[in-house]
Model the fold of this input.
Amino acid sequence: MAVPAELRQVIRRIEERVRVAPPRGPRPGAPLEELVGGAVETTDRGPILVVRRRFPLGHAHGLQPLAPAGVLDPAVLAMLARGAEPPAAHRLVYLDTETTGLAGGTGTYVFLVGAGFVDGDEFEVRQYFMRDLDEEPALLAALEPLLAGFEGIVTYNGTGFDLPLLETRFVLGRRRWPAERFHLDLLTAARRLWRERLADCRLGTVEQHALGFHRRDDLPGALIPAVYFDYLRRKQPGQLPRIFEHNRHDILSLAALTGWVAAAAARAPAADVGPHELAGLGFLWEARDAERGEACVRQALAMGIAGSGRARLLAWLAWREKRRARWSEARALWDELARGQRVFDPRPWEEMAKIDEHRLRDWRAAQAVVQEALARARANGAGQAVHALLGHRLQRLERRLARPLA
Done:
């Protein structure tokens, strides 16, 4: 049936009112600031491109919300930073840089600095970008008051890369670098927690495992300098927006991961984590709270940690028991370690023999330990030095046993 003309006009007017306009993308040939959602801001040393993004603290980066980064336990922060006195969580700034090279030195420029911080019930990410190398004075002029507004810095490998490089640029630009500042380099904690389980401890690897965050179409870090140099030559944005996205994800991952690690450390040894992570938390706590560190290690063993991780924990506990002169406890740990070996190692056998001979005064038990160690050494093709060491100990014990009792 044909639709009357008047009805068609009514339908057309209704459609016009409810029609949703398609999302507006960047205009063809749009400037970089429009492509990345930023604006050119003025400093006392010239213009600089700044991108600002705000996220509610309930925002989940992968599976981890940002909220824990806003309520960090000072005692945990002090432990993670190896004793330095920490500021409040909202006085920390999370830093990550993108540079013209990975070698460092005076010839390497920092062309993009990402800074994240808690502001009320939101987390803000700011990115400062040099559109050309002659904008470095403006970049430093923008960063100086930003850093002065915080009392601590959080980085990922900042000790070895980001902060020395930024300090170099500040010094060359005759700007004051805030040297005496609390600094938490989260890479140290990440290595403690995940080096036994993950292929590496790069932020991109750790964020997938701990945060459940998987980047889509991420620009590999090794390609970032080439993309920037291409932009400098052609003055066309090209792949540059992907660098901003990469840097923003780095900042969000750093904040989310700091919250994850701090929360787990605060709950340890009752943290709901795997045995490898719990063992790592134990080693982190060791210097600050030895009893808490040991409780984490013992709990990791009770959870069934296996392989080289278990051997490392058994040896760690055995040495602790030896230092406390708890000989029977130390010997039991050395015994478990010795009998769980896949590759022969004489050290636990030697330690058992020493305890039997010198502490428990049980020479026959020491002799039996060395005899078994020698048999295992032969079966596993141990070197001549190992055979000589064990053989010398056995001969001494046999001479002692051959002496008549007084």
Q: What stands out?
A: The chain is about 55% helix and 15% strand.
